[in-house]
Amino acid sequence: MGKETSPCWNPKIEMMPKKDLESLQLKLLRSLVSRVYDSSSYYRQRMEASNLTPDDIHGLKDIIKLPFMTKKDLRDNYPDKFFLAPKRDIVRYHASSGTTGKATIVGYTRNDIDAWTESLARSLTSIGLGADDVIQVSNTYGLFTGGLGFHYAAERIGAAVIPASTGNTQRQIELIKDLGVTALAATPSYLMYLGEIAEKMGISIKNDTVLRTGLLGAEPWSEGMRDRIQNWLGVKGINCFGASELAGPLWSECSYQKGIHIWGDFAYFEVLDTKTHEPLGLGEKGELVITMLQKEAFPLIRYRIGDITSMDDEKCECGRTHPRMARITGRVDDMLIVRGINIFPSQVEYSLLTNPEVGNEFQIIVERKSALDSMMVKVELKPEAFTDSIAELNKVRERIEHKLRSTLNVSACVELVQPGTLPRFEGKAKRVVDNRKL
Ligand SMILES: [Zn+2]
User: Fold this and answer.
1) Are residues 12 and 128 in the same domain?
2) What is the pLDDT of residues 43-67, one digit of tens each?
3) pLDDT (tens digit, 9 = 90+) per residue, 326-359?
4) CA 11 – ligand 1 centroid, Å
5) pLDDT digits (tens, 9 = 90+) for 88-142
6) For residues 375-381, average pLDDT
7) How many C-beta atoms surround the C-beta of residue 58 within 10 A?
């Protein structure tokens, strides 16, 4: 797909020589650390506890001297104890989705909103989107940052925006068809669901619409799912990344789809060993730790976001020099341990989608019987693969179980279910039901 180099939104920054980018990052880091040290009792206390002053940051590598921040720190400082900007400079509030506890309130100054929009505008341009595009935003609008994040960035690059938000899938499909939507922002599971409903309405996304780009994120997904979206729907699946605590959706892959371009003037990413927290090398998979370099209202330094990934520092084929992040393969807190084996739902998805009979939905159920964990995977079949022949179904089930065992190194019972029977999600898919009392 598309080998032509797409235009740059901000070529001076995006194509900046690596050395210059690193000097800029160091300058921004030093000024951030001085600012929080001077104006936040929270940061000053934590730095003093580690015997640190801003003068201890000589190079980018010195970032490892600074203490971590966790979701718990954010919750403990609810609602606005972390805020550095005076109240009158805050122009907007959002809240994280709160799926793992109390919501985190994030405030934005005008410059914060502007930097967020600039970041995603660069990304959308790098995919080849621009003024000729019609972008439907099917992420939730409101306290969640997905909707407004894509909305502002799409407007900034001159595209027409349809603020569809979530829900009313039939109307969403009509809008895609009638208004000539070329790109859609959504969770990957929602795009798949939309494709299924469209088929029931007699509409093929591939043949009857001009939708060609999916801006997909907010939940872990696999290359298998990307292949399926691209082949079945004819929609190029672009991996996007961000989080409410950081600002919202901020970064995406470019049209080459080889890792997410992380704009280095906005953020510094580290990947650490999940147990020792020692820095890992390029290409090595571990826990992602994020420092936002320019935020005014709600700074984040060495934030343990909980995602598992790796980084690449090679210049991209598109010419952009900023570091690239690989696909998120799981979350530290999403990780299941079954009989001592670490399992990510994305691995299960990857294995399932190699079977042509398997539909788009699955659910992992973990139980503990006496002392033994057992894992069951409910798998929805495609309508054309569903049959009344028990012998046929058993053969399919055994093959899926065999493949799962070789991917996960632990056995799982598979239960095949009829198409359309597992729960659908308009936001983040909930793939795991853990019934163990740990
Ligand atoms: Zn690129």
Assistant:
1) yes
2) 999 999 999 999 999 999 999 999 9
3) 998 877 776 777 877 778 788 898 899 999 999 9
4) 12
5) 999 999 987 544 446 789 999 999 999 999 999 999 999 999 999 999 999 989 8
6) 95
7) 9
How many domains are there within the chain?
2
- Ligand 1 center to 307 CA (angstroms): 22
Same domain for 366 and 279:
no
Query: 150 alpha carbon to ligand 1 midpoint, in Å?
Result: 20
Reported as a single tens digit per residue, the pLDDT across 269-299 is: 999 998 899 999 999 999 999 999 999 999 9
Cα of 259 from ligand 1 centre, angstroms? 8
Same domain, yes or no, for 70 and 131? yes
Its pTM stands at: 0.83
> What is the 157 CA–ligand 1 centroid distance (Å)?
18
Ligand 1 centroid distance, CA of 174 (Å): 33
Q: Write out the residue range of the structural domain in which residue 171 sits.
A: 1-332
Cis bond upstream, residue 79 (ω within 30): yes
Judge if 314 and 407 occupy the same domain.
no
The CA 218 to ligand 1 mean position distance, Å, reads 21
The answer to whether residues 247 and 265 belong to one domain is yes
From 273, 301, 332, give the residue that closes a domain.
332
365: CATH: 3.30.300.30
Q: Please check whether residues 327 and 365 belong to one and the same domain.
A: no
How many Å lie between the centroid of ligand 1 and the Cα of residue 323? 10
